[in-house]
Amino acid sequence: MTLSLIISMSLFALAASLSPGPVNLLSLSCSARYGAKAGLNFVTGASLGFILLFLLIGFSLHQILDVLPQLTNILKWLGAGFLFYLSFQLWRDQGDLSIHQNQSAPRFMTGAILQWINPKAWLASVSGIAVYIPNADTNDILIFAGLYLPICWLSLGAWVAMGILLGQYFQSPAKMRWLNRSLATLLAGSSVYILI
Questions:
Q1: What is the percent of the chain with per-residue pLDDT over 70, rounded to a whole number?
Q2: What's 146's DSSP letter?
Q3: CB 58 within 8 A of CB 136
Q4: Where would you find the membrane-spanning parts of this chain (predicted)?
Q5: What share of the chain is helix, strand, coil (3-state, %, to 5)?
């Protein structure tokens, strides 16, 4: 594998991971509301969940999707439905900053599972593999995944940092409600965009 291909894969991973999407918005929301520890826990689960999905697609699933293209549509609609549900829950949150807030913080497994129903994660995996390693060579898949993991984690970590900064400003329930509803609207909008 050439250095130029590694750089190109890294730039693709950065663009796919850093661009706004459902997991990015939830990383921001989680850290604004629950702090750095909860945000990083969620991000770590999301990053590892994505890499497992990426490896599965790289080693076998892209062949299944070639044979059953309608599976992509089913996954897209299921994922969008779940994202609408998450945006509804975020919209309903009253912004109460009580001492019991850590009980409802998104967890590691929430992040991991969310990537498996996140249409953006599926598209990033399938398109990245199709463009950069269409022959799905084992070593190339492992190298790409090895590049993607830290880039994904750091990119989502940047959203956590933004959330922490916003969380310092949004210390009242009214301001937190405004932030939650703004993020819920963006999350719902990203779901609609996925379906178009």
A1: 82
A2: H
A3: yes
A4: 42-62, 74-91, 141-166, 178-195
A5: 85, 0, 15
